[in-house]
Amino acid sequence: MMNPATHARPTRRGWGWPVRGGGRAAHVEPGTAFAGTTSQLCGLFPFAVSSGSDVRGVPVGRHLHTAEPVGLDPAHWLRAGLVSNTGVWVQGQPGIGKSSITKRMVTGLVGFGMRAVIPGDVKGEYTSLIDGLGGTVWRIGRGMHTLNPLDAGPLHHVLKQAVGSERQRLTETIRARRLSLLEALISIVRGRDADPTERRLLGAALDLASGADEPVIPDVLTVLTAGSGPLQAIAACAGPAEYRRLTRELTNTLGLLCEGAIRGLFDRESTVTADINTPALSLDISALDADDDEVVAAAMLCSWAWSSGLIDATSADGQPRNVVQVQDELWRALRVAPGLVEKSDRITRLGRHRGVVSFQVTHSLDDLEALPTESDRAKARGMAARNGILLLGGMAEKELDGLARITSLTDGERSLITSWAAPPTWHTGRAHPGRGKYLIKSGQRMGLPVALTLTRTEAALYDTDQAFRRGAVS
To answer: Strand order in 323-328's β-sheet?
Structure first.
């Protein structure tokens, strides 16, 4: 039953309460309609361009202008026709939170049912996260786990069960990846590519050595040194002595892979194994971070190849599961020798059409310009430009000039990104203006500026400054 007192209470009219201080207006003028372009009216009406944000996906923060929640799911954007591929390019100066938003995306996508794969974690900064997700971390280094570059990994078990054309396809996939990786390792050791004859010799030696269940590089070296009939025919030599002379540089290069700076890392059977049902997996190579770039590059390429096998095995076992993959410090590997950009592309490209959301993280496009040849630089710029989504943090104006090769930015977007680049004062205790702030760009659309706030658990898992806190002196 309605309360009579409530029923008798006066109802507020559309133009205010008829009491003192109630803001009543005796007459309300109708609004005046104006029409104009956004460039003419944006100063009068600050929401002339809507945010266009999508709540669906991993929550990455609130829109800086409208406070709307913004979600990001590259797979959903692909299905909705917003992007043509699920690659994500993450760029910004150190310390603004590139790792934080990448880890938020990894956490959210794993929650949506994807598997996280971190191939070659140079700094070991994803280890805590993978452990927190209930995944597996393999630490690779001297006295730790080893990784055989020729190990087919999970694909080896899938191959045993395959029949007919599918078995043939998997066999050729494994061979192509092994050969590309061997060629890449040779380029790293000698600083240049193998010539056509050496490549044929390498392929033939690999085929002969692959009679073993899982060949290792010393097996290939043994076959190459022995110089059976097919190998001498490829070398077009008159006898064993001439064969040894013609193949001396190639055999010595393979020998350095077994006896040089990376001895004991990639010249023996793998101790790394994979459970294709794990929710997350990381190959932690941080124990090699202080080594020469050649050692780190070899470790990264081997890790990428092994992880690609895991992704392919996931798709081939009849129970496909989408994967989110993170490649950080990408260019540290590719700048070591000419041609590594194309070789790394061959090693990893087979998994791209199998439901992979890929994050490539970098500080600066200057990393691309540090590659050894103009051909490598052009291919690297193409790799960056093919990413369907960009996550841009604070950076200097000169960085935006290089970024213009990948995406277009309005004057307002450029000003916003540069305003996040540096603290306004030298006083301690002030939050960095760009910390947790990002511009999400895709194609020619207006960007979505968002501010990410981490939960307490995330702040502990995503922390990349623990080394400084551990060593702090009061």
So the answer is: 69-72, 58-63, 448-451, 437-441, 389-392, 87-91, 356-362, 323-328, 115-121, 280-284, 136-139
Each residue of 341-398: pLDDT tens digit? Answer: 877 776 666 444 668 899 988 888 777 777 888 888 888 888 888 888 999 999 888 8
Structure tokens at 75: 């797979």
More confident: 129 or 10: 129
* Residue 53: per-residue pLDDT: 66
Longest alpha-carbon distance in the chain: 114
130 neighbors 136 (Cβ within 8 angstroms):
yes
Task: Please check whether residue 301 is in contact with residue 333, taking contact to mean a CB–CB distance below 8 angstroms.
Answer: yes
Backbone angles phi, psi at 216, to 5 degrees: -120, 165
Query: Among candidates 61, 70, 128, which has minimal Cα distance to 101?
Result: 61
Calpha distance 171→162 (Å, rounded): 10
Angle subtended by helix axes 164-190 and 196-209, to nearest 10: 130
d(CA 377, CA 339): 10
Measuring CA to CA, which residue among 76, 137, 68 is closest to residue 105?
A: 76
Pick from 135, 415, 371: nearest CA to 275 = 135
Please list, in sequence order, all residues whose beta carbon lies within 8 angstroms of the beta carbon of residue 360, skipping any fewer than 6 positions away: 87, 88, 89, 90, 327, 330, 383, 384, 387
d(CA 108, CA 30): 47
Q: What is the DSSP letter of 86?
A: -
* Residue at 358: amino acid letter: S
pLDDT at 266 over 90: no
Give the tokens for residue 169.
Answer: 């396809």
Cα–Cα distances (Å) from 92 to 70, 88, 96, 362, 418, in that order, read: 20, 13, 7, 7, 10
Of 328, 317, 401, nearest to 361 by C-alpha is: 328
Which SS3 state, helix, strand or coil, does residue 417 take?
A: helix
Q: What is the average pLDDT across 184-197? A: 87
DSSP 8-state class, residue 446: P
Average pLDDT over the chain, rounded to an integer: 82
pLDDT tens digits, residue range 136-172? 999 998 888 988 888 887 777 788 878 888 888 888 8
- pTM for the model stands at 0.80
Exposure pattern of 373-397 as b/e (b: 16+ CB <10 Å)? eeebbebbbebbeebbbbbbbbbee
Other residues' Cβ atoms within 10 Å of the Cβ of residue 281: 23
DSSP string, 263-311: TTTSSS-------TT-SEEEEE-GGGTTS-HHHHHHHHHHHHHHHHHHH
Amino acid of residue 375: S
Structure token digits, residue 26: 């005796």
